[in-house]
Amino acid sequence: MKKYSGSCHCGKVKFSAKLNLDHVRICDCSICSMRGALNNRVAKANFELESSWKELSVYEWGSKTAKDYFCPVCGILPFRRPGDLTAQEVLAGKQPFEGYAVNVRCLQGVDFESLPKKYIKGSELVLNES
Length: 130
What we know:
Layout: E1 2-7, E2 14-19, E3 24-27, H1 30-35, E4 39-43, E5 47-49, E6 57-59, E7 67-70, E8 79-81, H2 87-91, E9 99-103, E10 117-120
Parallel strand pairs: 3-10
Antiparallel strand pairs: 1-2, 2-5, 4-9, 6-7, 7-8, 8-9
């Protein structure tokens, strides 16, 4: 596990994360496809926001359990909190995740092009009713 520093484009949002950067996740849902983020999950205990939570903008949709945090100045989304599991995922035996998905494109000194890609079929998930 290695500690990485990350930020948005303008530097207003700064964070660090300790993670085993052995792949990036590419989701095919509509928002992830449009955003183009390359994500890697980091446990809550291994994530530190170095700027203020109050200064972040948040986007929620669907079940409103996922939180996309982005910079209100430059608009970059450096990390997100993944949503709760859908009923479909629970039935499939998937375990809940407590943490964040960091946008690997926002980490300093990472050659994200060389990392293996894990493709996520987010477009096939059925959202929980809220």
